[in-house]
Specification:
Blueprint lengths: L15 H6 L7 E5 L4 E2 L4 H11 L4 E5 L18 E5 L5 H5 L35 H12 L5 E3 L1 H6 L4 E3 L4 E3 L2 H5 L3 E3 L4 H13 L9 E6 H6 L7 E2 L3 H6 L2 H15 L6 E4 L3 E5 L8 H8 L6 E2 L7 H6 L2 E3 L1 E2 L10 H5 L4 E2 L2 H12 L7 E2 L1 E3 L9 E2 L19 E2 L3 H10 L6 E2 L7 H5 L2 H11 L4 E6 L3 H7 L4 H17 L6 E7 L6 H14 L5 E4 L7 H8 L15 H16 L1
Parallel strand pairs: 1-3, 1-4, 4-5, 5-8, 10-11, 14-18, 17-21, 22-23, 23-24
Antiparallel strand pairs: 2-13, 6-7, 8-9, 9-12, 11-12, 15-16, 19-20
Helix pairs in contact: 2-7, 10-21, 17-19, 20-22
């Protein structure tokens, strides 16, 4: 289907009155989100809505509906095709609770950062309910029982199979079965959502769509004819009988996702089966280019007001998607995929030109980034399909091709009229910068705002192995190289290093040794994060089972608040010292 030309930059209807202003009698799709409505390509709901609009569908946005009744779900009338349900840009439990499962007093994706309806933060009704995907799906079903419900976004994607919920401290079944939805879109959803809309518009069924999961009864599953033999994960009953099977499931999913296997995946829940169809595949460069150039207003809806998350990204450009780092504690590869898709330089320049024309632009592109900025332009030299996509562990793969594309891109964007400065604010992989002294020098001298973000995460080999991260030697060599470049230029390098405490397998002794090494390096422990067992990661499976990811030997796990705080205080003491 060809993209429908649309040169206007009007925000999509977010209420009944705005729908009438467009003289729409009905809409095809209502996208429901736990975030405030920000019409910017950094926000998933905006991205999907503009993608559907560009292909001729009428889309309305239901942002942060009240969840104590179904009234808000009625305001656009019955959607012709489906409700698309998302918790927002983050998992709702991560948005609502700290790593200690304490209620957060701030939500950066809500107006004024206020997580409650009404002006006062003492109100009891939160804008984003816990496990928002499930709650919104139930309300949509109450509003219109016959309208298909499609789940999507990172919460649905990472909770599509049996998963751990740290706020409840228990394993939960698939969000698809709990929500009783018709379909779940996993990963980056542009291809799958467009196929869903097209099929429903034609009156066709939804079975077998790449990039989706289906909920099947025992009878329907037995009757389903699959093209290839599926990967069968340990069932709900099996995992509850033996938690080691949870680690088996997560490792199997990890290997399946990284290999880009076309085999379906199945898992028995309680009385239902979840069937994951083959992946939809990443967007092509041309598609990724076009999606960033759709007519976003790049500002919040008037009803949203000041949204903190928007302030951080309004003058930024997403230039890369995917990550081949495959860190145990991170779900980016599981959600965005391990293959890098980079926008063409020409498309980035066009998008930067659009940013430069924004009324509040003051000359600074705040970020050319993505999950990892210096993976831009990276690819594989192998002509055959790689089944690992594990390019940085235990060392940089010899088949990985990383050129100077980011360096050249920065120079092109800096030449745009009205652009005075270009910053790289996204994280950077030290292993890749070590082989690119020209880029490293450029970043240190001109393209870093304040300090460079690096993520060594730890210094001890045992913990780094569990994290699936490079060794301490990489950090030492990187700091040495950056120091040489900076001294030659007569400047002092500044870094914001990220470290994790209480990761599964990390002991007090490991933390003390890390603190000593950080001090010896003269490195400031800039950002401390307690490990949080979020859904969809191998580290969470190690946390739940207390087992080493490779050897299955027991490992130490800091589960109590007291044990977790004790590890954190070691680095906090280093910061005070």
């Amino acid at each position: 289907m060809k993209l429908k030309k649309n040169t206007t930059c009007l925000q999509l209807p977010a209420c009944r009155e705005e729908m009438r202003e467009r003289r729409w009698e009905n809409v095809d799709v209502v996208l429901v989100s736990g975030d405030a409505y920000i019409d910017h390509p950094s926000f998933g709901t905006a991205l999907i809505s503009r993608w559907l609009e560009a292909h001729g569908f009428r889309v309305a946005i239901l942002a942060q509906p009240r969840h104590d009744s179904a009234d808000d779900f009625l305001q656009f009338g019955r959607p012709r095709l489906f409700f698309g349900i998302s918790a927002g840009n983050m998992d709702s439990i991560v948005s609502n609770y700290t790593g200690y499962a304490r209620v957060r007093s701030r939500d950066v994706y809500s107006p004024e950062g206020n997580p409650y309806f009404g002006a006062e933060k003492t109100r009891t009704c939160r804008r984003r309910p816990d496990r928002a995907t499930i709650r919104y799906a139930h309300l949509a079903r109450q509003a219109y029982r016959d309208v298909p419900i499609v789940l999507g976004g990172i919460e649905a994607s990472l909770r599509r199979f049996v998963h751990y919920d740290y706020q409840q401290e228990k394993l939960r079944a698939s969000v698809l079965t709990d929500a009783k939805a018709d379909l779940l879109v996993y990963g980056m959803g542009e291809r799958a959502v467009l196929e869903i809309a097209g099929r429903l518009a034609r009156g066709a069924g939804l079975a077998g769509i790449p990039g989706t999961c289906e909920r099947l009864s025992e009878t329907r599953f037995a009757a389903r004819q699959l093209e290839t033999s599926p990967l069968t994960l340990p069932s709900w009953d099996s995992i509850h009988a033996n938690r080691e099977r949870f680690l088996d499931a997560e490792l199997a999913l990890d290997a399946h996702a990284r290999s880009f296997s076309m085999s379906p995946v199945v898992q028995k829940q309680q009385s239902m089966w979840v069937l994951q169809n083959r992946p939809a595949g990443p967007l092509t460069r041309d598609e990724f280019d076009r999606i960033g150039l759709l007519p976003f207003t790049r500002r919040p809806h008037p009803s949203a007001g000041d949204v903190p998350a928007y302030r951080m990204v309004r003058h930024s450009i997403n230039i890369v998607r995917g990550c081949f780092g495959n860190c145990s504690f991170c779900a980016i590869a599981r959600h965005q995929g391990p293959v890098i898709v980079s926008k063409s330089p020409g498309a980035v320049v066009k998008e930067a030109g659009m940013v430069a024309e924004m009324p509040d632009f003051r000359g600074t592109i705040t970020d050319l980034g993505g999950p990892t900025a210096n993976m831009y332009g990276a690819g594989c030299r192998l002509s055959v399909r790689c089944r690992r996509h594990d390019c940085l562990f235990p060392r940089v793969c010899r088949h990985l091709d990383v050129d100077d594309s980011l360096y050249d891109l920065i120079l092109r964007v800096e030449r745009i009229t009205g652009v005075r400065r270009v910053f790289i604010s996204s994280g950077l992989r030290m292993e890749l910068l070590l082989g690119k002294p020209r880029l490293l020098q450029r970043l240190l001298q001109k393209n870093i705002s304040g300090s460079m973000k690096i993520a060594p995460e730890h210094t001890e080999s045992f913990v780094l192995h569990l994290m699936h991260k490079s060794g301490y030697e990489v950090l030492r060599r990187f700091l040495e190289e950056a120091g040489k470049i900076s001294r030659k230029a007569g400047m002092k390098p500044r870094f914001t290093p990220y470290f994790i405490s209480a990761h599964p397998g990390c002991s007090m002794d490991h933390m003390k040794k890390m603190a000593g090494k950080i001090k010896n390096l003269g490195l400031y422990a800039g950002h401390l994060q307690d490990f949080t067992p979020t859904p969809g990661t191998v580290s969470t499976a190690m946390y739940v089972t207390g087992l080493h990811r490779d050897t299955r030997e027991p490992i130490q796990v800091a589960r109590t608040r007291r044990a977790r705080r004790a590890q954190r205080r070691i680095l906090e003491g280093l910061m005070r010292g």
